[in-house]
Specification:
- The chain is an alpha/beta fold.
- It folds into two domains: 218 residues, 3-Layer(aba) Sandwich (Rossmann fold), CATH 3.40.50.1820; 37 residues, no CATH class.
- The protein is 41% helix and 12% strand.
- The protein is built from twelve helices and six strands.
- A six-stranded parallel sheet has the order 2-1-3-4-5-6, sandwiched between helices.
- Strand 3, helix 4 and strand 4 form a beta-alpha-beta unit.
- Helix 3 packs across helix 4 and helix 11 packs antiparallel against helix 12.
- It is globular, with a radius of gyration of 23 Å.
- The termini are far apart.
Length: 292
């Protein structure tokens, strides 16, 4: 083999290696184009398994997914931030790729705290699902109950609605953020701790934060919202478009088409008077116009 052939071979392998590390590399025939990364962060007292259904949905949409588990009940939020930093530092993210995040519950506060301490130049979009951005009313209950405090760990008592709590000290966000939260409380005891609409753990108002780009309320509970297929589709839409679909916030997100949902509800009450039937038809027309 001549020197020229050896040099050509070296150039070939260098180009091949560099293409393999590039997020925007050209795919082989029949191979889907790889999208950017999505990092998943679960909530308090949960594991990465709680995000597995969403992980699978994102994979099918072409995203490269990193589902991170962390010891949510063992460390305060400051310790969880350092844990997350170490995990992100070790992961071989490809150059040129954006890193998006999807969080559930306390995972959103861990991420906000992380972004406050560490700069991420390749940060993409963020979707927070049921985040206690102004704390949770239940944190005070946990803090004052000897039985609950050791069960939920040190981070749980940092999520109170007090002005000096970790969420309330973080301030406005300065990144591309969409928030989805629920308004279905399935626990009558927990309901006593809330004065407004809530999902059983976080109030609708607490989920909001100054600087967010979009906000969506669905009729779902705190625990089940991350498994809801319509919610998962809304997450994907925001990651791709930067906005939620606004036809969804008027209806129960039970996996059905909104128009079919309304027609089915109308069919359950055949004795509706003419005015009530007109209301159902108006809702359907509204959906059709909004969807255009």
């Amino acid at each position: 083999m001549t020197i020229r052939q050896i040099n050509n071979l070296r150039i070939f392998f260098i180009l091949l290696f560099s293409l393999g590390l590039n997020c925007a590399f050209a795919p082989q025939k029949d191979e889907p184009v790889k999208k950017d990364y999505v990092v998943l962060l679960h909530g308090l007292a949960r594991t990465q398994r709680s995000m597995a259904a969403l992980e699978n949905r994102l994979h099918k949409s072409g995203f490269q997914v990193v589902n991170i588990g962390y010891p949510s009940r063992d460390l305060p939020i400051e310790g969880l931030v350092e844990f997350l930093h170490q995990r992100l530092q070790r992961f071989p993210f490809a150059p040129g790729c954006k890193i998006n995040f999807v969080t559930h519950s306390m995972g959103g506060i861990v991420l906000r705290s992380y972004l406050k301490d560490y700069e991420m130049k390749n940060l993409g979009r963020v979707v927070m699902v049921s985040p206690p951005n102004h704390g949770s009313e239940l944190a005070k209950l946990i803090k004052e109950t000897r039985v609950l405090k050791p069960l939920f760990g040190p981070a749980s008592v940092q999520l109170s609605t007090d002005s000096l709590s970790v969420p309330n000290r973080l301030g406005p966000v300065d990144f591309d953020l969409g928030i989805i939260t629920g308004d279905k409380n399935l626990n009558l005891f927990y309901a006593l701790w809330f004065s407004g609409k809530n999902d059983g753990k976080v109030s609708v108002n607490s989920a909001k934060i100054s600087g967010m780009h979009d906000f969506l309320v669905v009729h779902e509970s705190h625990r089940q919202i991350i498994y809801n297929r319509e919610v998962q589709q809304q997450i994907i839409r925001f990651l791709e478009k930067g906005r939620f679909s606004k036809t969804a916030d008027k209806f129960s997100m039970n996996g059905s088409n909104p128009e079919k949902f309304i027609r089915r509800e109308a069919a359950k009450t055949p004795n509706l008077n003419i005015n009530d039937r007109l209301k159902f038809k108006t809702k359907i027309v509204t959906i059709q116009l909004t969807s255009i």
